[in-house]
Write a structure and sequence with these properties.
Aspartate Aminotransferase, domain 1, binds pyridoxal-5'-phosphate
Length: about 425
Amino acid sequence: MNNNNELMFQPFPAPAKDIEIGKIRSDFPILSRSVHGRPLVYLDNGATTQKPRCVVDAMTDEYMNVNSNVHRGVHYLSQQATELHEQARETVRKFINARSTTEVVFTRGTTESINLVASSFIQAFINDGDEIILTEMEHHSNIVPWQLAQARRSFKIKVCPITDEGRLDLEALEQLFTSRTRLLSLTAVSNVLGTVNPVADIIHIAHAHNVPVLVDAAQAAPHLSIDVQAIDCDFLAFSGHKVYGPTGIGVLYGKEHLLEKMPPYMGGGEMIGKVSFEHTTFNSLPFKFEAGTPDYVATTGLARALEYVTAIGIPAIQAHERDLTRYAVERLREIPGMRIFGHPSFPVQTEKCEDGAVISFLVGKIHHLDLGTLLDQLGIAVRTGHHCAEPLMHRLGIEGTVRASFALYNTKEEVDALVEGIDRVIKMF
Ligand code: PLP
């Protein structure tokens, strides 16, 4: 077993050009605002990223000049809107290297994508007594949909544990597969620990057991190159708003032969072939899974966001964020009473990005909520709480953490502001 993130998505890229941080920051108007009279230090990117002006402009332009419902009109505006919408699908296809746009379903986000699979896949492929595998580091949106699906089929949910270092226990994972296992669904990057899972290796193992794999790429899409053909995943989900795009739009990638066999998730306009009260047929892929008017302006915004990150280059973003994360872990570790969850590989210098740009921590006996609230008074936005990963909190024996998560526009000065802020809070306690 090779616990090697190099194989995760695409091979580790060649050294990237430095990103022009000043220019990038000026693309995000919100970064120049102040909060509580201080410059905003936005370190809550794992929750949602800020939007570059080009995304907002593209959406404004569409509402001002093109707006019309897609796929239904013969008139000019409808055709133009449809063209933008389907071009956006092609941009997503390229971004994840799917074989065809028939495999790219627009949803409202990662949560809806996983719910879609949990509902439709189990109807097509899971019988009573079957099993699926999740992991201990999943977000609630990759736990609860499966629990809801258990009302339809009585299948068992098995859970792959994590090690004390915050890695998936791959030996334990191997032991969980049986002849009844029908699916493995796991996150590519932990939204709490920052752990980057070796999903290509894991998919290889699962496929050796004839088990398809769903990858939750919510925390991967903004940071890592995704190549669904290279990793050979069966499903992959991500959210637009975490990758500099708008809210309310996301993607489900699915292999065509699986999507073909799955029943529609929702019924309504667009997803049908012919409708009568006696019998209804369904549209072809991917429209079978897209009932109702899609958020066609958001798809344009998403496409613009993916073009934006592609133009900067994921390798450059990855290198910048790795540098920043390493610096942050080193600086945070200097703070007395600091407890960082995950990130065992730092400060070991490595050419592989073994941990993502997410750092969860606690300081002494200070409650995470108090720390987050006081940092906010200094203009520093961090996340506090269980991060929608309560089973992981139970595993770690804690109720919650403070989480700093970085994006391509964050700087070492902002890390310094975080460290100084924590020092000030410690002095207050
Ligand atoms: N999966 C992971 C790992 C996440 O971090 C999140 C959001 O934080 C989600 C799923 C859910 O994403 P959304 O709320 O955009 O559907």
